[in-house]
Amino acid sequence: MMNLAIYDVVGSVESYGMIYLTDTSDLVGGREGALDPAIDYAAHETLAALFPRLDFSDDLRAALGTYRTGSRDHDLGRRAGLRTARAMIRHREDDGWDRTVEYVPVLRPGHWRPDPSVPVVEPHWGRVRPFVLGHGSQLRPEPWGGYENTRKRLASERYAEEVELVRTLGGAHSAERTPDQTEMARFWANDLDGTYKLGQMYEHTGILVRTHRPDADTTDVARLFALQAVAIAEAVITAWDAKFETEVDHWRPHHAIRMADTDGNYRTSPDPDWQPLSADVDGRHFAPNHPSYLSGHASVAGAWAGAVSHHFGTADLDYVATTDDPHAVGVTRHLPSITAAAQEVADGRLYAGVHYRLTNERSLEHGYEVAEHAVRRLV
């Protein structure tokens, strides 16, 4: 919402022909001096409405800097920013983000089982009104592995291969996973509260701009961040639709491995003590508390990569990536391209023991599909 509000005020000043929701060119069209205050007030007003318990006034003052309050450009920019932000807030008031949905698990083999000690993660999010798509189910993927029937899926050779792969490479005490794969899993995890989660992709976009387009102007950066923001938002909504609004609430690997004696597949065998590599700061192993298919991380990575690559005109941009995950403090990774970064995100979910390879591959494809829709709407 904030990035789209900024996108609209920049579009109104620069008149580049693309407005998402609110055109304020009647106030600021062509007034370059109004651009910065318009952005500042649009961002502040949006954030203040979304997070009423937080005080962003110092941020607004810092953003405005020494800008001459009371000047015509300041006042017009302020009016444009406030109008745009308030229109965005009204537009999203009934988008369904605050719905309450009770998740009722299906306690049969193959179906995801929530951890009762923590809340199920946003089971309603697939019903949130998207930003550019018609509805959350618009890009709904085929069932896991193409199997409509849960029993056939569990009995398949492909299923057994997938379970064995994550058992071997994703376990807490895996002897097959390489040190680099372990680092990859932890570097891209960001499942824990207090980490920047999806914000990792935003930070990497900033690194790419500073590395490869250091002279980018405000218009360029505003369009880039709006495009990636919409792509990521739609990826999450559609991934959560697949997780909670379909019959394929596929169980996580730790359930599949521990309960392999219930899946009806002679190729699998149970390991009741198996744990994924994924762990909290106290070393307790866990998987995110939502179904396995699709992968949120991989879907977001594909959406991010597709959107950012389109903006730069190429995916072949190397950069030094960062993380704030507590299991990878101070670690950086040199990525040869944007698509390589997205692939690492997806692969890392296998090495973390929380997703199957097939899930990661399909989710990454899904993210790229989402990005194409965002590009068509905003570029």
What does this structure look like?
The protein has 379 residues and is mostly helical. It has two domains: 2-91, no CATH class; 125-378, Vanadium-containing Chloroperoxidase, domain 2 (Orthogonal Bundle), CATH 1.10.606. Helices cover 50% and strands 2% of the residues. The protein has 14 helices and two strands, in the order H-H-H-H-H-H-H-H-H-H-H-H-E-E-H-H. Helix 1 packs antiparallel against helix 3 (35-50), helix 1 (2-14) crosses helix 5 and helix 12 packs antiparallel against helix 13. The chain is elongated, with a radius of gyration of 22 Å. The model has no long low-confidence stretch (mean pLDDT 96).
Order of helices and strands: HHHHHHHHHHHHEEHH
Given this structure, which CATH class of the largest domain is correct?
Mainly Alpha
Count every helix, treating DSSP H or I runs of 4 or more residues as helices: 14
Number of domains: 2
Low-confidence runs of at least 5 consecutive residues: none
Distance between the termini: 17 Å
Strand content: under 5%
Largest sheet, in brief, is:
2 strands, antiparallel
User: What is the annotated CATH architecture of the largest domain?
Assistant: Orthogonal Bundle
**How do the strands line up in the largest sheet?**
1-2
Under CATH, the topology of the largest domain can be stated as Vanadium-containing Chloroperoxidase, domain 2
The general outline is elongated
Range of helix content: 40-55%
Radius of gyration: 22 Å
Question: Could you report the average pLDDT, rounded to the nearest whole number?
Answer: 96
Q: What is the total tally of β strands?
A: 2
SS-derived structural category = mainly alpha
